[in-house]
Design a protein that fits this description.
Elements: H1 16-32, H2 39-54, H3 63-81, E1 91-96, H4 102-114, E2 119-124, H5 133-140, H6 156-161, E3 164-168, E4 181-184, H7 195-216
Parallel strand pairs: 1-2, 1-3, 3-4
Length: about 220
């Protein structure tokens, strides 16, 4: 995982329709990052992000859209790392193994309670194929929709741009960069659990997210 994708990196197979979708995404991102990144950099990140996601995608139809979303996150992270986009807004990265349950629930609560007063990202050391449907269900019970999220890997620029990295069970696979705030949340992996089993984990995650926001000086909007 590198900050700048290698221009010779092998790309996943792309259909004509998907290539057209990526070209449209590149146009949008080029306008969005005008004055910060050129088209070559944007194309690199788009194709690298596509490769990362295509390996485990279960619904290829949505790949260009998910790729654009992932590439946008990576480009924003790189801009922050390079000192080109410093807003002072706290940024937190939630990491677990599959980025399908715990880290996605944490991100959902973080975004719900922080609003635009903080930035939240998530990733996995071994991303799964889809968000755990039971996690989606129990979060919906709290009025939080995480169905549109998707498992994705962490990348160097995203970790380096985060002010705090919250890890949940990824162990030695979790990235370590000196000088960053790291916190391990010891929580059971709820993969395969029923809603009744997952709800206590969900509630504990919310409690920890609220404590984290308080420590960061970010008031909860709930």
């Amino acid at each position: 995982m590198t900050t700048m994708p290698d221009e010779h990196e092998r790309h996943a197979t792309i259909t004509i329709d998907q290539e057209a979708g990526l070209a449209t995404s590149a146009e949008r991102l080029t306008r969005e990052f005008e004055g910060t990144f050129g088209r070559e950099t944007i194309d690199r990140f788009l194709h690298a992000s596509y490769t990362d996601l295509a390996a485990r995608a279960t619904v290829p139809t949505y790949l260009p859209l998910l790729t654009e979303k992932f590439a946008r996150q990576r480009l924003r992270a790189l801009a922050k790392v390079d000192g080109m986009h410093l807003t002072g807004t706290p940024t937190v990265l939630f990491l677990c193994v599959h980025n399908a349950g715990r880290s996605q629930m944490a991100l959902g609560f973080f975004q719900h309670h922080a609003g635009d007063r903080a930035i939240g990202w998530s990733g996995g050391s071994e991303p799964g194929e889809q968000i755990n449907p039971v996690a989606v269900q129990v979060m919906a019970e709290r009025g939080i929709d995480i169905a549109g999220e998707f498992p994705k890997p962490w990348t160097d620029e995203i970790v380096r741009a985060a002010d705090a990295v919250i890890t949940m069970g990824c162990g030695d696979a979790c990235p370590i960069f000196p000088g960053k705030r790291y916190e391990e949340w010891t929580l059971p992996d709820p993969a395969g659990w029923t809603p009744d089993g997952m709800r206590p984990v969900r509630d504990e995650i919310e409690r920890r997210v609220l404590n984290l926001l308080a420590e960061l000086g970010v008031p909860s909007r709930a």
